[in-house]
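Input structure tokens:
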């Protein structure tokens, strides 16, 4: 899993590439380089024989939210449009604006909320496991499983 996750993070999040590795006309912009989640949890990749990476485009309409859920493995996100508010059970909140990226919290219930007047659109990179849900809804069991 570590090899797959590392390759995906490097490929999709463009973490510290060497400009000389690409044609001089290719523009490189580092988006995220971190070893912790947005609340300081150490990022640890699952150790599984059934590793699976999933990338989803998530659209949250104005006034809507994801519902309270958690992820049991690393998830990284890039906000394409709008402003996303992440609420935590302890009352803490984090805001992520358009063109920002972040590492989601792990094994911590949270709610992604759109208080804006336009859609929030993000690209989410899940470092999961085949046959396991991408998220678990609070009080409802399994959540997103695409």
């Amino acid at each position: 899993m570590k090899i797959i996750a590392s390759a995906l993070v490097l490929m999709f999040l463009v973490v510290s590439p060497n400009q000389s590795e690409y044609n001089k006309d290719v523009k490189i912009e580092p988006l995220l380089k971190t070893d912790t989640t947005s609340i300081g949890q150490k990022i640890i990749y699952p150790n599984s024989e059934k590793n699976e990476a999933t990338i989803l485009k998530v659209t949250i309409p104005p006034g809507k939210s994801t519902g309270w859920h958690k992820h049991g493995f690393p998830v990284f996100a890039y906000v394409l449009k709008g402003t996303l508010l992440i609420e935590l059970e302890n009352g803490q909140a984090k805001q992520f604006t358009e063109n920002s990226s972040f590492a989601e919290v792990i094994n911590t219930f949270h709610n992604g909320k759109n208080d804006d007047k336009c859609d929030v659109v993000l690209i989410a990179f899940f470092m999961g496991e085949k046959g396991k849900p991408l998220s678990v809804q609070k009080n409802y069991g399994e959540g997103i499983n695409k």
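The chain has one domain: 2-18+35-139. Helices lie at 2-13.
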